[in-house]
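in:
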């Protein structure tokens, strides 16, 4: 009886080769998981945590690397920034730029997505590619092209419209010119996202609305817009984060001018750091911009959640 039990126990045990193979597979999975986790931790530490901590540390010092100056000043840089009129002017310019760029990006993107999703339009794939092409074009190149287009002597804008406006040298038109360039470059991103959202909407809801006698506007207002709210939130948040960092287009097209009329927060940070070498002040502005971006993002998420619950 004992021999029978021992034989049964041996049969129930896996072969040594099977155990070894299973351990190797588990070892590979564990190793790959560790590599992935370590890679993410290293990426976060090097490209996110360290710059944020470095900026905050720099904001507490009078910092000029050219003369190896790094003197502790506490929160003086923040006080100087918050009492500086140019900072608030730049913040206002950034708000104006962000608001109108996001507004037209959402409206134009949604309108074109609705058009592309209708049965009236042919060659939808071609048009979708053409609309998205400006989005993947380098911002520096686009900014240079539009700078030349707005040129009062050789530009196409004045020739086509018949206007005689020095767009980038007039304080009334410089910021609108930058906004126009931004809308042209970025509307394709919103169009593609909205089009994907529209194609994923449930058809049975629209069929039920048609049976109830709802017209196009009622269907759009009561069904399409509410169901596209997550897409709209994604576009608004990603656009806001991007536009709060607007710098390249300002540098290329206006250099903050005329005067300081197109200064944005990010351009002011660049000016303080790399033109005036006030790295401590620039770091304080960067910290304020980081906190402001986080607060606005949280508020938008909260507002969207409240509207959804309502």
């Amino acid at each position: 009886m004992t021999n029978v039990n021992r034989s049964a126990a041996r049969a129930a045990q896996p072969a040594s080769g099977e155990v070894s193979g299973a351990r190797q597979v588990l070892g590979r999975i564990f190793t790959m998981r560790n590599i992935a986790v370590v890679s993410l931790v290293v990426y976060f530490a090097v490209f996110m945590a360290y710059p944020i901590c470095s900026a905050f540390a720099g904001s507490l010092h009078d910092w000029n690397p050219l003369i190896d100056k790094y003197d502790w000043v506490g929160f003086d840089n923040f006080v100087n920034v918050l009492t500086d009129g140019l900072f608030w002017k730049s913040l206002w310019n950034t708000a104006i730029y962000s608001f109108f760029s996001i507004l037209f990006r959402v409206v134009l993107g949604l309108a074109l997505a609705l058009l592309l999703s209708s049965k009236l339009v042919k060659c939808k794939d071609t048009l979708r590619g053409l609309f998205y092409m400006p989005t993947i074009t380098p911002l520096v190149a686009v900014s240079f092209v539009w700078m030349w287009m707005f040129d009062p002597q050789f530009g196409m804008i004045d020739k086509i419209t018949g206007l005689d406006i020095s767009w980038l040298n007039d304080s009334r038109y410089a910021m609108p010119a930058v906004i126009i360039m931004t809308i042209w470059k970025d509307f394709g991103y919103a169009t593609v996202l909205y089009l994907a959202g529209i194609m994923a909407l449930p058809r049975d809801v629209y069929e039920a609305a048609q049976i109830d006698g709802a017209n196009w506007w009622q269907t759009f207002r009561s069904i399409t817009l509410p169901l596209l709210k997550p897409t709209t939130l994604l576009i608004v948040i990603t656009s806001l984060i991007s536009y709060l960092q607007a710098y390249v287009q300002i540098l290329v097209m206006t250099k903050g001018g005329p005067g300081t009329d197109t200064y944005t927060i990010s351009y002011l940070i660049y000016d303080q750091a790399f033109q005036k070498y006030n790295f401590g002040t620039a770091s304080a502005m960067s910290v304020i911009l980081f906190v402001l971006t986080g607060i606005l993002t949280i508020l938008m998420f909260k507002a969207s959640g409240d509207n959804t619950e309502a």
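note: The first strand starts at residue 61 and ends at 64.
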